Amino acid sequence: MTLPLDSLVRDQRYEAEAFGDSPRMADELGALVTSGRKTATCWALWEAELEGEAITEVGQKTILLDGRGEPLCVIETTEVEVVAFEQVDKRFARDESEGDGSLRHWREEHQRFFSSTLPEIGREFSPQMPLICERFQKVYSR
Questions:
Q1: Does 89 score more than 90 pLDDT?
Q2: 46: left (phi over 0), alpha (psi -120 to 50) or beta
Q3: Strand duo 40-44 + 14-17: pairing
Q4: CATH superfamily assigned to domain 14-141
Q5: Is the separation of the CB atoms in 35 and 138 below 8 Å?
Q6: What one-character DSSP code corresponds to residue 69?
Q7: Predicted structure pTM score
């Protein structure tokens, strides 16, 4: 993705990543972001700690990738907080925009997701597990 020469964010530093754990999921979640429906995401704090990654900071720009690793858009983090899984609220679930947008659906799908991915790092799903909950806005798309 090449930003226009007069872009206000052209000279800033970016991370590049896809959401989800598969190309299919990256495509699905990327489409929600580019449509403007998805304005939040989360991941397990345990994964960030294991990989030595810093928690995303407000103002960070990310190039969101599709399932083939191609750029879709640029998002900017607007809010970050660490919250226990069981404390995620219906507003955050709605802003993640997956499924029907309900908290019930969010909990079911995220419990399933974390139950399948956390064993890879020697952890198990827990309602008390810490999540990095991020809100963002789309600042550029092609």
A1: yes
A2: alpha
A3: unpaired
A4: Sulfate adenylyltransferase (3.10.400.10)
A5: no
A6: S
A7: 0.87
